[in-house]
């Protein structure tokens, strides 16, 4: 973690290292399986695997920001938003990230970027219109915590590795299979490669979901301690979650693929199975944690 005034979280650091280790291991296993079955195409496989990894590391944050409609704004264009970010960065003793606005009525915010120099914090127009200044600062402090803890980098990379596994498997199948239908290895590869790719995707999906839920609680905790106003963040959470029910389902569906990056999910699951696959802890869990922090601060 970079040296800032945000409270360190060793549990988050341990989970990030573990997640990246296992997802990286899964990626290596997938490439190994492809090389074992498609010996004649090892050059193409390594080239595609290496190219996708490099492209994903350098451009995944831009792809995510573009997909969520982020548009970088100047202090003249969004003075209140820039002012809040300036105050929080001074309070946290951290470099100021780029500031962006997404033209969406869905009240939300996110942070992305592979490092502090490329970090970006974005708020939607729906969020800016609905929150009070102290509530907005609570949300922005939450997002800046992701940048300070660098978990936004891990989530940006990890979220795309599962997708890359599927792409790599399809490229390998197209390039190396079907050339000799009489080869028994071809028939086995046609069955094994999609199966391994599916397993890699499912495991990486579950790992990122577990990390995502913990990092949201960690960001809430760090933001509340930094600002000293957990009640403002709790108010913002309650207001944003309540307003989600009034947003057209069509708009929520557009935001849902990026749930892991948002301050609050577009859809919240009520059943236990849905919570297992959820990118965020429940509202009750987040509010309960903030209430405990508020009690600690008052003492």
Report on the structure:
The mean pLDDT is 83. The protein has one domain. The chain has helices at residues 10-37, 42-67, 79-92, 125-130, 133-149, 151-176, 184-227, 230-244, 249-255, 272-276, 283-298, and strands at residues 70-72, 98-102, 109-112, 120-124. The two termini are 28 Å apart. It is mainly α and 299 residues long. It holds the Pfam family Peptidase_M48. It is found in: Cell membrane.
* Helix count, DSSP H or I runs of 4 or more residues: 11
Mean pLDDT: 83
Question: How many DSSP E strands?
Answer: 4
| Range of helix content | 55-70%
Which residue ranges are poorly predicted, with pLDDT under 50 across at least 5 consecutive positions? none
| Helix-and-strand structural type | mainly alpha
Set down the secondary structure blueprint.
Layout: H1 10-37, H2 42-67, E1 70-72, H3 79-92, E2 98-102, E3 109-112, E4 120-124, H4 125-130, H5 133-149, H6 151-176, H7 184-227, H8 230-244, H9 249-255, H10 272-276, H11 283-298
Parallel strand pairs: 2-4
Antiparallel strand pairs: 1-2, 3-4
